[in-house]
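Hi R.,

Here's the chain you asked about this morning:
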Amino acid sequence: MFSPASRYGIAGATLALWALTACGTSSGGGDNPTTAPTTTQAAAKDKGPQCIGEAPADGVHVLRGGGFRLPGGGGVQYAAATADGRSRTATLRDGAGYGAGQQQWTVKPGSRLTVSGHAYTVRQVCSYRVVLEPKDAKDKAALAAAPESMEFAGGAADNALCFTTNRAVLAAASKSFPAKGQPLSLLDNGSVKQLPTGPSLTVSYVDTAAGTAGLGANCAGVPVAIYKDVSVGDTVEFSGVLFEVSGLTEQAVRLTRTSE
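And here is the predicted structure, written out as C-alpha cells:
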C-alpha cells in the first residue's frame, strides 16, 4: 500500500489576481492545497445531493479541485464543496492555478461572477464539477471555437483543446475512453494515461485501508481536476465524460463510464 503523504500535490505557479465578483459569501484566501493532512482516515462522506441546478449544453465545466482558463486571460478553480443533504455550494477561487493571496467565494446555482471583465452565471453545482454559462455571446463563441489542430503540442499551445466547449474536441476525447458501461483502469505506479486531445490522467495515491484514492488530470500545464479521497460509488468527470469509481486496489483505480 502506498503512503497518501503526497496525495494532494498540485503544481501551480503564482498567478496574478483577476477581478472576480460573485453572489455568495466570501470565505477568504483558503488553505494551500499542496499541504497534505497527517491523518490516514477516510474523508467524511459527502452528504449530497450530488448536483443542484441544470447544466446547459454549452456550459463551462470546472472540475473539482482543478482550474479552467477563460476568455480574456482569466481563470477560475473549483476549490471546495459543501453539502448538507438538502443543498450544495461550491467554493470558487480566482485564477486557473493556485497562487498565494487569491480570493475565493462560496456560490450556488444562480450566482454571478465576473472574471477579467467577463460575466458568467453559475448554472449547476455538483460534487465533481461546477458549470458556468457565459453571459456574452462573444465569450460563448470563443469557448466553442474550433482549434487549429486536434493534435496536442504541450503547454499553453493546447488551450483550445483543454479549455473549450467545442463539440468536435469533446467528441474526440469521448471516443478515447471505453464505451458507456465499460471499465477504465488507471494504474497507481506513476503511469499516465494521455488522451489524444491533451489531458493526462493519473492516480496520485491509493489507500486500501481507508478505501479511498486520489485522481488527477492535467492539461496545458494546468491541473484541471484533483479528486481527493474518492471512494467506490463516487462520480468523477474527465473531458466531459462521467465515470463512477467502481473499484480500487493497491495497484489501480477502476472507473466505469456512466455517460454516453
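One quick note: The first strand starts at residue 20 and ends at 22.

Cheers,
M.
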